[in-house]
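Here's what a typical entry looks like (FMN-binding domain protein):
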Amino acid sequence: MTTELSREESDTLLFESGTGVLALTDGTEAYSVPESFGYDGEILYFQFVHTPESKKMAFLETTETATFTVYDEQPAQSVIVRGTLEPVLEDEEAKAATAITENASIPTVNVYPDTKPNEFTTDYYRLTPTAITGRQFNVFTPTPGDQ
């Protein structure tokens, strides 16, 4: 059994999460990747570190509507954000950096161990929600006589 989360409850989970799963598509194939993010109460911000061969960036170019999912196990709940993903304008990069600093969980794993730092590109992106939905999964506890 599930219960729908209010917008306030969904916002709380987004503020507290720091990481989630970003889903992109090329129209045929889906591609999902874990990402840290920042949330300012309206927009999700990402700092993508990538190389020229990045599959994520290739899928980003063909995705019209992205989805981003965060979840927690105690209590079991999740929030899905759907919307457009676009580059952050230069004059808004400080806002993106602030949101990321305030609640992103920055990974400590280098996903490109054989790549030199000067071979990376770093870009800020924003996910502007068209929908934010959340739900909590209620655990059914049988009482004597339930079967």
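The first helix runs from residue 7 to 17.

More examples are in the samples folder.
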